[in-house]
Amino acid sequence: VDERHRLAMAIFIILWISALASAVLDSIPVTAMMVRVVVSLVSRETLGLPLEPLVWALTFGSSLGGNGTLYGASSNVVSAGIAEQHGYKITFTRYLKVVFPLMLGQIVIITAYLIWAHIIFEWHSE
């Protein structure tokens, strides 16, 4: 990738991969795995990638992605269990139909924000 677009591409890839992976797997192991990827990318001086934007991309991706499916985060499972105890049955399919599109919308907004903040305004330290 051209050096001018390297940071934008890294933000995009880390954000979307962590979000989609956290939607289908538990977000904590995904985050633990992706932290190693981010540290590895930043430590390669030839890439010249700053740490802050990539950490924010991982943070937003895994947090919001975990909300995308019923099993993406432990809190979703607990909430569904409490709802069922009170007579509200939340199925995986019903949850997915409502929440997954919202999660995708949030990821699109965060993508735009991170590009705006770290590519256009360079709000990260060098």
How would you describe this structure to a colleague?
This protein is an all-alpha fold and 126 residues long. The protein has one domain. Helices cover 74% and strands 0% of the residues. The chain is built from five helices and no strands. The chain has helices spanning 6-24, 27-43, 51-66, 74-85, 92-120. Helix 2 runs antiparallel to helix 3 (51-66). The relative contact order is 0.17. This is P protein.
Give a brief rundown of this model.
Keywords: Membrane, Signal, Transmembrane, Transmembrane helix, Transport. With 126 residues, the protein is mostly helical.
Estimated structural class: mainly alpha
Topology pattern, helix = H, strand = E: HHHHH
- Determine the N-to-C terminus distance: 20 Å
Low-confidence stretches: none
Q: What overall geometry do the principal axes of the alpha carbons give?
A: elongated
Residue share in β-strands: under 5%
- Major beta-sheet overview: none
Pfam families: CitMHS
Subcellular location: Membrane
Domain Citrate transporter-like: 7-61
Transmembrane segments: 7-34, 54-74, 95-121
Write the layout of secondary structure elements.
Layout: H1 6-24, H2 27-43, H3 51-66, H4 74-85, H5 92-120
Helix pairs in contact: 1-2, 1-3, 1-5, 2-3, 3-5
Keywords summarizing the entry:
126 residues, mainly alpha, elongated, transmembrane
